[in-house]
Amino acid sequence: MSRLSQQLNRLLLKTGLKQPKALTKFPAERATVSNVGRMIILGNAPMQMDMSDYIDSSDLVVRFNECQNYGMGTGHKTDILCINNFGQPAEEWVKYKTISKLPFINQVSEIWFPRTESILEHRKTVPDRHFDQLRFRDLSADLIASNHLANKSIVRFSDTLNAEVLSALKRLSSEEFREPSTGILAIAHVLTAPTYSKLQKVILGFTFEGWKGHPWAGERALVESYATNDNTLHLEP
């Protein structure tokens, strides 16, 4: 039994929760490594199947924030970590040095900070009595310093990309929203960055639900439109 499994079992015993049901293995015939290379963009939703071998055999794996589903049918390979760099979650990760304590952080070679000032400008237009403009700011420098990330390659998404995603989501969303998710920004980034143009890009762990401030229906529609127009992008259920 791995150390991670032992820690999970102890936590389950302590909290009185039951061991999660074992997942069915992802079919081996679908797990063949593509000869053009495969990149996994891995959201934090629970897996419906055990995708560990498929994910770990990929050329690049992108995970997000605290990666709540790490090792739970998602394997362990982590090349890139995309971190929300605005708002309360980022403040807490700075204060508690959360990112530096993640079990896979030593294997991460690249950190992505997705949000820019376009997000701030959008938030100013959305009615929200809890919004504090002074606190809602780019915390990427603080995240790097407190979590000892200076030895990683740092990528900051462009303001142009943020503005384009915002504009697309406004067209596709019937309701007001506070901000795009880090996931949709990362997907837009891999589709526009020349580095990944020849890789097959597989989206896993995205159920398009969660915090009510994200435009989930609009994000699903946007990803589906991306996949329709780019045959290197695949959305797995």
Structure description:
Helix 3 (87-96) packs parallel to helix 5 (140-146) and helix 7 (182-192) packs parallel to helix 8 (216-229). The two termini are 29 Å apart. With 237 residues, this protein is of the alpha/beta class. The chain is built from 8 helices and 7 strands. The protein has helices at residues 3-15, 52-56, 87-96, 117-123, 140-146, 159-172, 182-192, 216-229; strands at residues 38-42, 60-64, 80-82, 110-113, 153-156, 200-204, 233-235. It has one domain: Glycosyl transferase family 29 (sialyltransferase cstii, chain A).
> In total, how many beta strands?
7
N-to-C order of helices and strands: HEHEEHEHHEHHEHE
Helical content, roughly?
A: 25-40%
Strand content: 5-15%
Q: Round the mean pLDDT to the nearest integer and report it.
A: 90
Q: Looking at CATH, which topology would you report?
A: sialyltransferase cstii, chain A
Question: CATH homologous superfamily - what is it?
Answer: Glycosyl transferase family 29
Do you know the CATH architecture?
A: Alpha-Beta Complex
As laid out across the biggest beta sheet, the strand order is 5-4-3-2-1-6-7
Shape: globular
Q: Describe the largest sheet.
A: 7 strands, parallel
Low-confidence runs (pLDDT<50, min 5 residues)?
A: none
Terminal Cα span: 29 Å
User: What is the CATH C-level name?
Assistant: Alpha Beta
What structural class do the secondary elements suggest? alpha/beta
Radius of gyration: 18 Å
Number of helices: 8
How many discrete structural domains?
A: 1
